[in-house]
Amino acid sequence: MLLRYIFSLATFVSIVLASGQQSARIPKRDYENNHYFVVDIDTSSSSKPLKDFIQSHQGDFKFEHQVVGLDDHYVFSLRKDNAISEIMGSYNAGQSDDDRVLHKRDGFEDVYDKVVKSNGLRSISWMEPKRLKKRLPVYVTEEEAQDFDSVKRFEAVDASQKPIVEAMEKLAINDPIFPEQWHIINPRFPGHDINVTGLWYEGITGEGIVTAIIDDGLDYDSEDLKANFNKDGSWDFNENTNLPFPRLFDDYHGTRCAGEIGAVKNDVCGVGVAYGGKIAGIRILSGPITSDQEASALMYGLKVNDIYSCSWGPTDDGRTLSQPDLTVKKAMIKSVQEGRDGKGSVYVFASGNGGRAMDSCNFDGYTNSIYSITVGAVDYKGLHPTYAEACSAVMVVTYSSGSGEHIHTTDIKNKCSAAHGGTSAAAPIAAGVFQLVLQMNPNLTWRDLQYVCAMSSVPINEQDGNYQVTALGRKYSHKYGYGKLDAYAIGHFAKTWKNVKPQAWYYSDVITVGETIEGDKEETKVISKILSIKEDDLKIVNLERVEHITVTVNIAATLRGKVGMRLTSPFGIISDLATFRPVDNSNAGFKDWTFMSVAHWGESGIGDWKVEVFTSTPGTGSIIEFQSFQLRLFGESIDAEKTEVYDVTKDYAAERRDKQSEKEGEIGVDPHHTSDVISLSSTSIPIASEQSTSVTKAPIDDEVNPTGSIASTSTTSSSSSFISGSSSATGDVEDDEGKTKHYTSDHTGQYFMALAVVGFLVVIIFMRFHKSPGSSRRRRRREEYEFDIIPGEDYTDSEDDGNEEDSLDLGRYNNQRRTSDEERDRLYDEFNADTLPSYEDDGMFKIGGEEDEDHKPEQKHTKEEPSEEVNTDEGEGQSSK
Ligand SMILES: *[C@@H]1O[C@H](CO)[C@@H](O)[C@H](O)[C@H]1NC(C)=O
Ligand SMILES: *[C@@H]1O[C@H](CO)[C@@H](O)[C@H](O)[C@H]1NC(C)=O
Fold it and tell me: Could you name the active-site residues (predicted)?
């Protein structure tokens, strides 16, 4: 017994120490036999609560390790054959109903109590292994292939080449595919490029800034990337080792992205947008991971990495609704609060490639996050590619594949790629531009960078994007965001940008609606609500002007794809939040789903916000129940001194109500807060039946409720399930003790010091009795690294079965065959024969030269892409969750 205790303490100490150094020695996972979960427990002043938790569940829960980088969060495992696993699940973790939740079941009451009543316990987050999806290039249509032929026929011997020649001479660029990198200088369609050379001439090449590419690895041995590779910011979460080597045969995605950002100016392939900056690789896409690993990945190397470039997300199939787990959200928040010396890490996310499936990035919780800059795509003719997803979270667009052309970049194994594309290829270009921007003004916070995006981007295709002129005086489109990035323009705009004041936020009450509409053949039925916000409401929360807004909703629906939702601000700007998705047949509705919009940037926030939920036409058979919503405004504070550190688990609506009742004392509801009859003379959506003229107040606050007054103008009403009153709609649950604490790393330090003394001794004892696991592990890794490239999974039947929230089929994953070296090489060659032109023997695009035979392989490859892409596209397995 004592031995056992010492053993577990030793493991605990050694692991905690190791994770403190960010060396991430995470024990190997056994998903077949174990469940894994994260326990958020208060260890800010002592490790006792954790030790008590470990001890009181000995034999059931096994302590694994601390979540790397996140204080107070610890991973435990539980054997699947343990009876307790029947009731175990999430607790207080903001998970909605159908996720696995810790249940109080007959015969298990005491176990339940023992778990949830543990001293200092805040939450338990259940984790399923999942695979996040690369935004792969989309296959080329017949039409586009023809288009591409005409591109290739284009004679490259005219005046349009002059800027290319000039840049090569001025900057001594000898990279063979530089002339093909049209996103840098576009000779065929002048102006349709990122306009970066002007910055390069000024010596701005990204120096001093590091971008981490979170993806399927980074070929740091590549001649084109080696010199710019930053090892300290890199980690492989799939293999639990420090270098993100692309091991699987199809691990080329991250390397291609990295090349766009940081390919070295030399004689290999092309150059990166920020070729003087550094790149790091964080590998997470090459196998199943759990949300603690995802969380660690998204804040890995916080002291080194400035920007995280993410070209992945939930499946873009037009029917997935998925968001990061609470642990992951906490990681992103920590990263924007503490990264870049408090100025905040920059997250860049690709908007998604589901455009052809009518997918929208508002159904993706990563692009939808206020902490990420969502990047859409335009092609080399400046057109909107059909694959690129639009939504109210799109901030900017930049260049990628379409109209038959692709992005030309570095590839794995010292090859070059002429086939990179999708929004996957757009996000890294944006990340590269941001690297230049941060070099020009390192003082920018994560929010300042979003401001300069909105202020300096160049609207494109103004006849097409349904542009609206926003409060900033800038044009905004759901398709193009604030326009395309112009590197020169944003760099010079940013140079003189003065930092905005810190962030403040306003949470409305959770407004219970409880009304139902039914779709029919002709008419669009609408449930419309008005939320009035008064100047005082924002003053009390110290909010001066709006940047991001979010709307968290509960909507039940028989067909989720037929739910429409939009928000109209007092200023008159419309955000399309839920758009119709023809293939989304889910009946799961939206449970605590948060939509986000950047279209209201610069508004005061004061006045009537109109929220509308409506049916599609024809919409026969679809029933929609709008249950509740909560509007949150995030923006610049009035008084910088009064700002606080944001805590995602806090109910700021309750806090605001407290402040208001404190201030207003006994005063009841001010009649001015209640809107009168709302006239819905919306042009695009006719209102079906007669409107109720009654004015209902938010039914949720029995006490003083000066805000959140709503006027109801809906057609019908019903009273099925209501979500409970004033609790936060995201289900972020607050713990009695853990109120506003902001956990800095200070306490971790003390904590380690205290433990170090005991730990050191115990570890030594521990080491004596066990063969050093480190040494054998290291040996094995080395072998794996050299010989053990695992072939991809067999995905031939991996299309999901209609359940939009698939978890990974582990059986299939575990059964994957390991092949001999020979088989591996064969697979590799077969796969890459078409896709990877070699820069050694491939004829390069020569200025002034003629197109020669050597171009043929490349051309052929592009044409054959459809089969390749279909293949790999299926191959990407499951979405997250
Ligand atoms: C593109 O860069 C040049 C300098 O190289 C600059 O003069 C021009 O204004 C830039 N374009 C835009 C739209 O800002
Ligand atoms: C950044 O901030 C420092 C100190 O606050 C200031 O001295 C410097 O001029 C600023 N740099 C830029 C580019 O604004």
Answer: 215, 253, 424
**708 and 795 assigned to the same domain:** no
Q: Which residue has the tokens 């890794």?
A: 781
- Please identify, by atom number, the ligand 2 atom nearest to the C-alpha of residue 497: 14
Q: Is the peptide bond before 618 cis (omega within 30 degrees of 0)?
A: yes
Least confident span in 181-195, 261-275, 600-614, 817-831 = 817-831
Domain ends where: 437, 469, 495? Answer: 495
The domain that holds 351 is classified in CATH as 3.40.50.200
Mutate to test the pocket of ligand 1, among 166, 193, 485, 486 (most ligand atoms within 8 A of CB): 486
Strand partners, 628: 512, 554
428 with 547, same domain? no
- Give me the phi and psi of 327, to 5 degrees please: -60, -40
Cα 443 to averaged position of ligand 2 atoms, centre (Å)? 6
Ligand nearest to the backbone CA of 441: 2
pLDDT tens digits, one per residue of 362-394: 999 999 999 999 999 999 999 999 999 999 999
Which residue, chain included where needed, has tokens 């002709």?
522
- Same domain (yes/no): 749, 719: no
In this structure, of 132-141, 647-656, 858-867, the range with the lowest mean pLDDT score is 858-867
Clarify whether 215 is annotated catalytic: yes
Q: Is 439 in the pocket of ligand 2 (CB under 6 A)?
A: no
Return the bridge partners of 594, or none: 552
The domain total for the chain is: 4
Distance from Cα 450 to the centre of ligand 2, integer Å: 18
Query: Which residue is closest in CA terms to ligand 2's atom 4?
Result: 443
Domain that holds residue 799: 742-831
What pLDDT, on a 0 to 100 scale, did the predictor assign at position 487? 98
Same domain, 746 and 716: no
Token look-up 């409506």 returns 614
pTM for the full predicted model: 0.77
Same domain, 388 and 329: yes
Cα–Cα distance for residue pair 269/571, rounded to 1 Å: 49
CB 401, CB 420: distance < 8 Å: yes
Whether 519 contacts 621, CB under 8 Å = yes
Instruction: Establish whether residue 441 lines the binding site of ligand 2, counting it when its CB lies within 6 angstroms of any ligand atom.
Output: yes
* Distant-in-sequence, close-in-space partners of 109: CB < 8 Å, separation ≥ 6: none
Q: Is 216 a catalytic residue?
A: no
Instruction: Please name the helix (run of DSSP H) or strand (run of DSSP E) that holds residue 750, with its range, or none.
Output: helix 746-769
Token code pair at residue 196 = 């970066």
Q: Do 403 and 549 lie in a common domain?
A: no
Helix (H) or strand (E) holding 110: helix 109-116
Place of tokens 């092309």: 270
